[in-house]
Amino acid sequence: LIGAPAGYIGYREQAQLTDQLKHRSHGILLFDEMEKAHEDVQNLLLHILEEGVLTDATGSKIHLRDFMIIFTSNIDASFFTQSSLGFKETVSNSGTKLSSLNQTVREELETYFLPELLNRLDAVCLFEPLQNSSLKQIATRQIKMLQKRLEEKQIVLTYDHSVIEYLARSCMESPLAVREIHRNIEMVIEPLFLKYLLVKKSSACSLHLQRTEELFVLTPVYVKDDDHSSETTR
């Protein structure tokens, strides 16, 4: 992140973090899934959060006072209740960070993060689980993106509500959460179109997608004057 120290291979070579920050006077610095970081990374961040300065391996100082620093972390979902979508901001009024958090959550955080690091945070935001209505919106957006890609191949895709219902429900039943929507579209739905295009024998350019109890079904939609019988891809 800050470069190799003097005497080591890679000294004065580009550092992944500090060399990027040198060219920016302000911004957002995001550390995703921070609980997976080595303790040395947390020690490095202690100085940043306290002084607003980061020193690289060559001794150059980078001022980060105009940066917003955000950590994300995945902790046990059982700590959250299935209420409305959003963030719950927890800031101590007495000056002790995280004092209004449930003690169990506090203990869980301390198994991953140094207490000194937690005490330097201005706020902790708990992101609650997505509700079914929000999952449906995400699923609809993903399907519409698929529609646009198919339009480039002159294929019109329609779908019924059973597709969205299934994609949203699959998220709630899978540990992959929202990623399950993308997985279903990429691994299950898209191959149906590939299979259809490979065996396509008609002039149909409109396809309808639906979900039965067991599988997705793709059906060509023909114009009224077409004498072809309906074909189905499963």
From TrEMBL:
One of its GO terms (biological process) is cellular response to heat. It comes from the Bacteria. SMART domains: ClpB_D2-small. Keywords: ATP-binding, Nucleotide-binding. The keyword ATP-binding applies. Pfam families: AAA_2, ClpB_D2-small. The keyword Nucleotide-binding applies. GO terms for cellular component: cytoplasm. Gene3D superfamilies: 1.10.8.60, P-loop containing nucleotide triphosphate hydrolases. Coiled coil: none annotated. Residues 130-216 form the Clp ATPase C-terminal domain. One of its GO terms (molecular function) is ATP hydrolysis activity. This is Clp ATPase C-terminal domain-containing protein.
